[in-house]
Specification:
heterodimer, A: 274 residues, mainly alpha, MetI-like fold, 14 helices, 74% helix, B: 341 residues, 2 domains, 15 helices, 70% helix, 0% strand
C-alpha cells in the first residue's frame, strides 16, 4: 500500500538524481571525448561534443614525445610501497583491538590526534626531516609521509575488535605464535576491511600530488600527477594532450572504484559512523 | 624509513617461532626480555623471560605504524614550532650555523603582514560559503539516493562519488579547460543564451566562486558516502512506526531520521570545516592563489612563503597559527556537541 503511494515520488527523485549524476560526471565525459579530438578541434568555437575523427594520437604522444611511461612506473612503485603501510596499519589496528597494554588509551588518542593536523603544518618540517634522512628525490621519500593514516588504523581496529577472542585463543593453544596467529587467522578474517583499505591506499597513492611535487626534484622521479601538472604549465595550450593525460590518471581510478564500490560504502558503515 | 625495517623484522623472524614474537630492532633493548630474543621459544619452565617478551608483543604490533605516524605527524609539529622561532631559509638548510634564534619575531611580522590578514579573510569567505553548501548538498543527495534500493539508484551513486576519488591535477586540467575564457565550454554555453563572457578564473570575485565550486563538487562525494552509511543504519521499523502514527514523510524525516544522523552530521561538519580551513589544492592548481591574491588561502600563503620564497621560519610560524586556529575551532565544536547531549 505504502509502496504504491511512494511510486511517483521514487520516479521523480530518480529522475532528478539522474540529471544531477549527469551534471556531476559531465566534466569526465568532456575530458574523454576531448582527449580523442585533433588539437585544432579541441580549440574550436563552437566546441563539438563528439570528436569528428576520433584518434588516440594524444595518448601515443604522451608515451613517445613525453616521458609518461616513466611517470606511470614511478606511480605504480609509489602505490606498491603503500602496501607496506597497509600491513603496518593492519598490525597496529590488531594491536589496539586485541591486546591490553600500558599506554593503550593514550597512544590511541595520539593516533587520532594526527587526524587534525593539516598537511601544511607538516609540509615544511617533513621536508626537513626527509632531507636529513637523505630521502628527498627518492620514491621511498615520496611514499613515506602518507604511508600510514590514523583513519586507516581506526578502521582496522573497529573491524578487528569484532573477531572473536576464542578463535585467537584456539590458535595460541595449537602453538601458533602471535605473528603467525595474526597472519593466518586475523588477516584472512579481515578480508573486507583489507579490500576497503587496499582500494583507498591505491587511490591515495595514485593521486598523491603534494609530496611528489615537494620531494621529487629530478624528472626521473616524477609521478603521473607531477608530470600532468607540467602539462598544465605549458605555454602553448594543447587541450587534447592535457585531456589525454588527465584521462590516463582518472580512468584507471574509475575502473577500480566501480569494481569495489560496494566494499567502500560498507567500509564506512563498518566504521560505526552513525 | 626505519618503520619499514620494523615491519619486515617481526614478519620474517617470528612466523616460525612458536610462542613469542621477535620484537625487532625498533624496540627498546633496555627491557630485560629483549636481550634474550635470539633464544628461540624456550620450554614451559622458562616462564619469566617469556612473560617479559609477551608483554612487548602489542608494542611490536603497533610500533611500525606508530613510528611512521610519529615521524610524519607529531615530530613535524615540534620541528615547525622550533623552526618558527628561527630565521631558517634556503641558505640555512645548507649551512646550519648561520641559522639564528629570533624569538617571536616571525609571529610579530606575521600579524603585521597585510598578506596574512587577507589570506585569513579569504579563508573565512571559503568557510562561510563552503561549509553550509557542502553539508546541504551532500545530505540532500544522500537522502535522495536512499529513497530506493533499486539497481538504478545504486548505479547512480557511483556518479556522485567520482569527483571525490579523482586526482586534483586532473581536475585542474579539466576545469581549467571548461573555465577557459577563449575556448572554454562554459562561456560558449553562456554565449548561446545571450549572456556575456565571465572571467571564471581571471576576475577576482568570480575566481573565488569558481574555485569554491570545484571544491564543493569534489568534496561532496565522501560526505555522501558517510551520510548514506548513516541513513542505512537507521532501522526500518522506526519509519514504519512513524507512518503508523500518521506522520508524513517530511515530519518523519525531521523528527525521526534527522536526529539519528546527529553523529554523522557532527563528523561531517567538523571535517568539512577543517577541510576549508586547510583549503589548498583547488586554488593552488587552478589559480595559484590569484588573481591579485583573491584566492590565496592561509595554506597557500604558508606554501608560498615556505617553498616559493624559501622562508621556512616565517612559513612555520604561519603554520603554527593555522594549527592553533584549527584546534580552537574543533575544540569549540566538541564543546558545543557536549552541551548538546
Amino acid at each position: 500500500m505504502t509502496d504504491r503511494r511512494r511510486r511517483p515520488l521514487v520516479v521523480l527523485v530518480g529522475a532528478v538524481l539522474a540529471v544531477g549524476a549527469l551534471a556531476t560526471s559531465f566534466p569526465f565525459l568532456w575530458m574523454i571525448t576531448s582527449s580523442l579530438k585533433p588539437a585544432s578541434e579541441a580549440l574550436a568555437t563552437p566546441p563539438t561534443f563528439w570528436p569528428s575523427a576520433p584518434s588516440f594520437d594524444a595518448y601515443t604522444r604522451l608515451f613517445t614525445e613525453l616521458d609518461f611511461g616513466r611517470y606511470l612506473l614511478n606511480t605504480l612503485a609509489v602505490v606498491a610501497i603503500g602496501a607496506v603501510g597497509l600491513l603496518a596499519m593492519a598490525m597496529a589496528g590488531y594491536g589496539f583491538a586485541k591486546y591490553r597494554f600500558r599506554g593503550r588509551g593514550v597512544l590511541f588518542m595520539l593516533v587520532l590526534m594526527t587526524l587534525m593536523i593539516p598537511v601544511q603544518v607538516t609540509m615544511i618540517p617533513t621536508y626537513l626531516i626527509l632531507n636529513e634522512l637523505h630521502l628527498t628525490n627518492t620514491l621511498a621519500g615520496i611514499a613515506a609521509p602518507t604511508l600510514v593514516s590514523a583513519f586507516g588504523i581506526f578502521l582496522f581496529r573497529q573491524f578487528m575488535a569484532t573477531i572473536p577472542d576464542e578463535l585467537l585463543e584456539a590458535a595460541r593453544l595449537d602453538g601458533a605464535g602471535e605473528m603467525r596467529t595474526f597472519l593466518t587467522i586475523v588477516l584472512p578474517l579481515s578480508t573486507p576491511i583489507l579490500a576497503v583499505q587496499g582500494v583507498l591506499t591505491f587511490i591515495s597513492g595514485w593521486n598523491s600530488f603534494l609530496w611528489p611535487l615537494i620531494i621529487a626534484t629530478d624528472q626521473d622521479m616524477y609521478t603521473l600527477s607531477v608530470g600532468l601538472s607540467l602539462l598544465n604549465q605549458q605555454i602553448t595550450v594543447n587541450p587534447t594532450l592535457q585531456m589525454a593525460g588527465a584521462s590516463l590518471m582518472v580512468v584507471p581510478i574509475i575502473v577500480v572504484f566501480v569494481l569495489f564500490q560496494r566494499h567502500i560504502v560498507q567500509g564506512f558503515t563498518m566504521s560505526g559512523l552513525k | 624509513m626505519s618503520g619499514n625495517g620494523g615491519a619486515g623484522g617481526p614478519l620474517g623472524g617470528t612466523a616460525v617461532l612458536p610462542g613469542t614474537t621477535e620484537v625487532g630492532p625498533v624496540h627498546d633493548d633496555r627491557r630485560p626480555g629483549a636481550r634474550r630474543r635470539t633464544r628461540p621459544g624456550g620450554g614451559p619452565a622458562d616462564r619469566r623471560p617469556r612473560r617479559g617478551r609477551a608483554a612487548l608483543v602489542p608494542y611490536a604490533f603497533i610500533s611500525p605504524a606508530l613510528l611512521l605516524l610519529a615521524m610524519f605527524g607529531l615530530l613535524p609539529i615540534l620541528v615547525a614550532a622550533g623552526v618558527s622561532l628561527t630565521d631558517l631559509d634556503i641558505g640555512g638548510l645548507g649551512n646550519p650555523e648561520t641559522v639564528r634564534f629570533i624569538g617571536l619575531d616571525n609571529y610579530e611580522r606575521l600579524f603585521s603582514d597585510p598578506g596574512f590578514w587577507k589570506a585569513l579573510q579569504t579563508t573565512a569567505f571559503f568557510v562561510v560559503v563552503g561549509v553550509p553548501v557542502i553539508i546541504a548538498v551532500s545530505l540532500a543527495v544522500a537522502v535522495a539516493l536512499n529513497t530506493s534500493e533499486s539497481r538504478f539508484f545504486r548505479a547512480l551513486r557511483a556518479f556522485y562519488f567520482l569527483p571525490a576519488i579523482t586526482a586534483i591535477v586532473a581536475i585542474a586540467l579539466i576545469w581549467g579547460y571548461l573555465y577557459n575564457s577563449q575556448f572554454g565550454l562554459l562561456n560558449h554555453l553562456l554565449d548561446q543564451v545571450g549572456l556575456g563572457p565571465v572571467g571564471w578564473l581571471s576576475d577576482p570575485t568570480s575566481a573565488r566562486f569558481s574555485v569554491a565550486l570545484v571544491a564543493v563538487w569534489r568534496a561532496t562525494g565522501l560526505n555522501i558516502i558517510i551520510f548514506l552509511a548513516a541513513l542505512q543504519s537507521v532501522p526500518k521499523e522506526y519509519h514504519e512506526a512513524a507512518a503508523l502514527d500518521g506522520a508524513g514523510r517530511w515530519t518523519t524525516f525531521w523528527r525521526v531520521t534527522f536526529p539519528l544522523l546527529r553523529f554523522a552530521l557532527f563528523f561531517v561538519t567538523v571535517t568539512t570545516l577543517i577541510g576549508w580551513l586547510q583549503f589548498f589544492d583547488e586554488p593552488y592548481v587552478l589559480t595559484k592563489g590569484g588573481p591579485v591574491g583573491a584566492t590565496t588561502s592561509i595554506s597557500l600563503f604558508i606554501f608560498e612563503n615556505g617553498f616559493s620564497l624559501n622562508q621556512f621560519g616565517y612559513a612555520s610560524a604561519g603554520s603554527i597559527v593555522l594549527l592553533i586556529l584549527i584546534a580552537v575551532v574543533t575544540a569549540v565544536q566538541l564543546r558545543m556537541r557536549g552541551s548538546d547531549d
